[in-house]
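Re: your question about Peptidase

S., sorry for the slow reply, the queue was backed up all week. Below is exactly what I fed in.
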Amino acid sequence: MKRLILSLAVASLTAACATTTSPTGRTQAVGAISQQQLDQMGAEAFAEYKAKLPRSTNATQNAYVSCVVNAVTRELPAGSQTGWEVALFSNDSPNAFALPGGKIGVYTGIFKVARNQDQLAAVIAHEIGHVIAHHHDERVTRQLGAQTGLGLLGALIGSQYGTGAQQATQQLGGAAVQGIFLLPNNRVQESEADVVGQRLMAQAGFNPGQAVNLWENMISASSSRAPEWLSTHPDPQARIAELRARAGSLMATYEQARAAGRTPKCG
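Result:
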């Protein structure tokens, strides 16, 4: 983790940030660190998850998730279609995530709200949407702009002088990974991942209208405590309305995919 903090510190001092255009036409500030470093951070975060959370041994569920992931990732641009690593975690939370470097984590709790393969595809495509829309790159760039490399480097050096400083550095290291990769995305990114993911699932032959049903299930299952995903959107009903409107325009894409033989049969 110390090496990771040091690489972030150096990067924030030396990298020249760039701008790019997101899949929805939004201008993004990116490039604070290289894609290789992003992939490394994704791998470290994923390794941390695998070390701390039990993995599901249910062969049927693992095959089901892998089938949906493979169908969705086949529709990605050339060069990013293969090599995705998938882990199904035994955890009751209805959650999933995707990280740079081709890492996808799914919690078994997602099956409570994603009740068929199309709804599971909506979840997975949404999370992959964050990756292909460069949201992690954008968040790293933003975070390093607000928290200078000098501060990170100072924490690293301070870790050599006493237990208290060492603990502070470990906390900072965990915060760096959590804050950049694992905390909820902002509302703009969430809406953008909805757009990208719903289009991606339609291209893969999953019914884009089922994204609406997924979010209705999420709201129904939330009871008094909203799921983590819902905490980043001011109005879940508005989100559902947007998904419903887009589904209509994506039905032609879905039907073309089915006619072309993209008819997933995952479960």
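The CA atoms of residues 13 and 160 lie 22 Å apart. Strands lie at 18-21, 27-30, 85-89, 96-99, 103-107.

Happy to talk it through on Thursday.
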